[in-house]
TrEMBL record:
Keywords: Membrane, Transmembrane, Transmembrane helix. It comes from the Bacteria. This is Integral membrane protein. The chain crosses the membrane at residues 27-50, 65-86, 93-109. The lineage of its organism: Bacteria, Bacillati, Actinomycetota, Actinomycetes, Kitasatosporales.
Length: 112
């Protein structure tokens, strides 16, 4: 009987990952991802804006490089995002945006 009474009187165990505590943690964990994805968006935008005049134009190689660079940054961000801490804390939208951006950059690098 004593054990039942002691169990009733104990306070409920607090979880370390409370939903109200995740707001600040999401901001802190989002900073490295934003630092990677902003240059990736910029490089992809420049690659999309480049219009080479001829098949032997240097702009074609620059667009391919920028597309590949954008894909590299997105993959690096996705590697960070699949770590257990990020998967527990961040929403699934942090996977969707870089996959979409990397797909656009890859096809731009291939079709220049």
């Amino acid at each position: 009987m004593g054990s039942y009474r002691d169990a009733r009187l104990r306070l409920p165990r607090e979880d370390v990952d409370l939903p109200e505590d995740r707001g600040c943690l999401r901001w802190v964990l989002g900073i490295p991802l934003v630092v990677l994805y902003v240059p990736a968006v910029y490089a992809c935008g420049i690659a999309l804006a480049m219009r080479p005049d001829s098949p032997y134009d240097q702009v074609r190689e620059d667009a391919r490089f920028l597309g590949g660079f954008s894909v590299f940054l997105c993959l690096l961000g996705l590697l960070i995002t699949i770590t257990p801490l990020y998967r527990r804390t961040m929403s699934r939208w942090w996977f969707a945006a870089p996959v979409l951006l990397a797909t656009v950059a890859y096809f731009r690098a291939r079709t220049v």
